[in-house]
Amino acid sequence: MGRCKKRHSRDEGRLRDGFTDRLKPVKPLDLSKIETVNDLVTQMSFTSFGGRSVGEAADVLFEMVRDEDCFVVLTLSGAMTVAKMGLVICDMIDSSLVDAIVSTGAIMAHGFVEGAGLVHFKYDRDMDDTELYYAGYDRVYDTLELEKNLDDVEIIFKEVLDGIKRDTVLSSHFLNREIGNYLAKNTKMRGIAKSAYLKKVPIFIPAYTDSELGLDLGIYNRRAKMNNEKAFSFDPFLDLEYFTDLIMKQKKMGIFTIGGGVPRNWAQQVGPYLDIIGKRLKQGGDFKRYSYGIRICPEPVHWGGLSGCTYSEGISWGKFTPPSEGGRWAEVYSDATIALPLIVKAVLERMQGRR
Predict the structure, then answer these.
(1) What's the pTM value of the predicted model, to 2 decimals?
(2) What is the CATH number of the domain that holds 49?
(3) Roughly how many angstroms between the first and final C-alpha of the chain, as a whole number?
(4) Is 7 within a domain?
């Protein structure tokens, strides 16, 4: 017969009570004690799973915006404006919770529609996508963008471009500022570009041609060439260097990421860019990392995609300050249309609408 392994049971005299090890207790969510969104989100930070991550994200955002040395970058991907999160983003801008925005072109294009006072509609599951195409309805999951809306804002964008000298080399932050300027002067509606213009918050679109705005600029240039007129030049490196110069001036940085994609990495890569500038050119570089990070994204890490990569992974690239050196992060695996309004409203209540 084989030897039996000796089994050891727990010694009741050595069992710990949690408090002696300074563990933080979880607490039941008590709806009877909730009067504000901040009350709810604060209690959620003492629960578990996704609720706790929402509460902890609000804590990190609150700390980040209270830090007077921190320059906050908001990165946006997904269909946030079609999904009617545009005014939440406006609230963040208007309340000075963000200092720069890096976005997909689609978010800004559909936000342009919203800011011009045009309307999106609910999609009905009984609708046929082929019929939607011929009727001029472009579907974004459960919401409809009108092709007429896009045609209407193209007319506005053409007017904006008509007011720019043709020898101007364009960039995304320049064009977003010009659109914001137009909307501030000509519309009463709130919108991301308008709020950003009024608060002097630059908006960068790294993949500008991947959007209706990029296509509209392409049409404008084609029309100019057909009329034997000078077309605009567009230089994305103007965005890269402008953003890099902005970051160089900051004592501390924080990043609030919705989704992932190009906006997330474009904003994050500024640290490695400054590092290799110093290493390869011996001047003009620096060692800069994000000290705070909040990420709302349902993408899991195990697919290996950038949108799902953790802030911990980013440490290895020199993008983030590790917790051992004071870095603070919160990662929320959730639909942003659920988590973002809760987090922002809770923090605005804590800040009483002011930074």
Answers:
(1) 0.94
(2) 3.40.910.10
(3) 74
(4) no
